Amino acid sequence: MLGAGTNFTVEPLRIAKTARVWTRNAIGEAPCLNYLNEYGAAQSELIGKAVVLTDGKAGTVENVWLDESHGLRISIKGHDGRWPVSTIKFAEN
What is the pLDDT of residues 37-84, one digit of tens each? Predict the structure, then answer.
């Protein structure tokens, strides 16, 4: 607990972004940076690709979201809703 008259400073978060690779020297930030890197990779790999989902829906991936309670989700042009990436049965190479 900080007593009266205690001085401290909070350093701003310094993140360098270079071509989808995020770096940070603090140990506690590593898992978050891994998620951001994987999210960026998923966007690059999936947006614009033709996919078929396990429920038979097919189309082009329109967007990728990182949902805090469900993980990576995708939307498909022409279909309402968002689906987990785990439901992709086939993806265009």
Answer: 888 888 999 999 999 999 999 999 999 988 878 788 999 999 999 999
CA atoms within 13 A on the CB side of 35: 9
Nearest to 72 by CA among 88, 49, 92: 88
- How far apart are the two ends of the chain, measured CA to CA in Å? 56
Could you give the C-alpha distances from 37 to 29, 30, 32, 44, 80, in angstroms and in order? 12, 11, 9, 11, 27
Q: What whole-number distance in Å separates Cα of residue 65 and Cα of residue 42?
A: 9
Q: What does the pLDDT read at residue 48?
A: 94
pTM over cut 0.90: no
Backbone phi, then psi, for 76, in 5-degree steps?
Answer: -120, 130
